[in-house]
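thread: overnight batch results

M.L. [08:02]
morning all. the overnight job finished for the chain we discussed friday. pasting input first so we're all looking at the same thing
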Amino acid sequence: MIHEVQGDILLSKAQAVAHGISPNDDFDKGLALSLRENWPSLAKDYRHYAHQVHPRAGELWAWSGVGGVRIFNLLTQEGAFDHGAKAGRATVANVNHCLKRLRHELQREHIQSVALPRLATGAGGLPWDAVRPLIQTHLGDLPISVFVYTTYHPGAAANEPT
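M.L. [08:03]
and the structure it wrote out:
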């Protein structure tokens, strides 16, 4: 069941967090930066992974940290690989592929709850009206709690129904 909540996703009680990145993300903006600040090895491990695999938009990279934190990195944005280039925008097709993969991983790993932001609407540049139905389509019928953080309030825990 999907619950739209307001607050700080880093204070979520969900078993996993999912967020959007680009294939060559530096984890230097928005939620990615906050995740890197909380779990520095996340960004380091992703850089190592990206140098070995050369990920593409539409894929998913899962990471587990100390204490059992599980983070699903959804490659919603196009990559920019020229020296000094900025990541490209997210696309509806990439978000669609990522959410299909996320659903699969949530089921495969028996994850009971996941928190995600308004995916691909910040640095990704997509309108929420384009992304919201995709989240509903891919995650809405799962028998787990899906917490979509629609408004960010730093340091405020959301009211996540159990």
